[in-house]
Amino acid sequence: MTKVLLASRNAKKLDELRRILVTERVPGIEVIGLDEVPPFPEAPETGATFEENALAKARDAASATGLPAVADDSGLVVDAMHGMPGVLSARWAGRHGDDQANLELVLGQLTDVPDERRGAAFVCAAALVRPDGSETVVRGEWRGSLARAPRGRNGFGYDPIFVPYGETRTSAELDPAEKDAVSHRARALRLLVPHLGALASA
Amino acid sequence: MTKVLLASRNAKKLDELRRILVTERVPGIEVIGLDEVPPFPEAPETGATFEENALAKARDAASATGLPAVADDSGLVVDAMHGMPGVLSARWAGRHGDDQANLELVLGQLTDVPDERRGAAFVCAAALVRPDGSETVVRGEWRGSLARAPRGRNGFGYDPIFVPYGETRTSAELDPAEKDAVSHRARALRLLVPHLGALASA
User: Fold this and answer.
1) Rounded-to-integer distance, Cα B30 and Cα B38, Å
2) Do A191 and A140 meet the contact criterion of CB atoms below 8 Å apart?
3) What is the pLDDT of residues A110-134, one digit of tens each?
4) Minimal Cα–Cα distance from B193 to chain A, Å?
5) In sequence order, which ranges of chain A are alpha helices (DSSP H)?
6) Which residue range(s) make up the domain with A176?
7) By three-state DSSP, how is residue B71 classified?
8) pLDDT one-digit tens code per residue, B28-78
9) DSSP secondary structure string, B106-145?
10) Structural domain tally of chain A?
11) Beta bridge partners of residue A101, listed in sequence order
């Protein structure tokens, strides 16, 4: 089995990434977490793009451990905000990781934005960095629009205000398997699957 | 004298607009404020651009009063935020007009953004709508970068965190005459001066 390090400290995101990779059943790959390797220094996320941040995280993990490493950077991209919160999604309300404050702030900012201009997407960049230093980075997008109030208890981040196209429920009202079938993170990871498979057979 | 209605309810912005127009000394023009005309309904600012919002305000004022009307829409455009807060500048922290909360939120959101990517601009669109329905809209920009903490007590809005190019002071540390010489609002209004002059001589 080829070990691949999944470099995320966000427990809910890690669950989702693992669940997707298990569903995709890449033969010959064993996914391990950061808790199974010695601690290493991680650079802050200061990139201007999701891709830069995903690559930086995967590079840190690969160079510290010698293992192939997968990392993602994800966020909400709001049309009426020219793509913001984007790479600032996690600290939109001014400090890191307060999901409730972040989504309430977005709703407040968009109070005067009419329904026809509330389009948005979840975006995920997923990077694979190999022990030989070669890199692959892919992007998955999930289009939808923003609700006027949060609904649902599943997922995390901005899930309670994101209504995927073709749905009336928010992504926090989908059950995890439904979300995994179509989410930005699933779409990105699926693009990495052939590359992970190639690692195993190399 | 041709009366021109300056359609703003923001007292500090109104001061600044009046000061600039007085300095520019457009002959034959008398600038009056919204307090000198009967109240009229004003549409909420829901445009996607500064220009749309400025035009909407000037149109409301011109059609309600029959006077030529000037209105502006202004905001802070942050490079690392793809141009946001932009048209949402006034309600960035989630409710309208809390300058302190708005600028502190921007500082919090940009905590991890390094100095070389803290470029920003103040942008002002100024619209003139004439009694015959003809319209002119212009744009002034003032480039600079964002400080890491607020400084200065002059001005309003995001002035305490905006450092104009070539300056070490924030725009809230400039005195009003210094700001008027170079600000986004001054640049936009100066572009309107010939149009206002033409009104007076028509």
Assistant:
1) 18
2) yes
3) 999 999 999 999 999 999 999 999 9
4) 32
5) 11-24, 50-65, 99-109, 176-182, 184-201
6) 2-201
7) strand
8) 888 899 999 999 988 788 899 999 999 999 999 999 999 999 999 999 999
9) HHHHTTTS-GGG-EEEEEEEEEEE-TTS-EEEEEEEEEEE
10) 1
11) none
Decide: helix, strand or coil at residue B74.
strand
Residues of chain A with Cβ-Cβ distance to B104 below 8 Å are 94
Q: Tell me, what CATH number does A66's domain have?
A: 3.90.950.10
Between CA A175 and CA A49 the distance in angstroms is 29
Residue B73 is among the residues annotated as catalytic for this protein: yes
Please tell me whether residue B103 adopts helix, strand or coil conformation. helix
**A159 labelled ligand-binding:** yes
- This prediction's pTM: 0.86
The whole-angstrom separation of Cα B71 and Cα B74 is 10
Contact residues, chain B to chain A, C-beta under 8 Å: 44-46, 48, 80-84, 86, 88, 91-95, 104-105, 107-114, 117
Give the dihedral sign, CA B147/B152/B157/B163.
negative
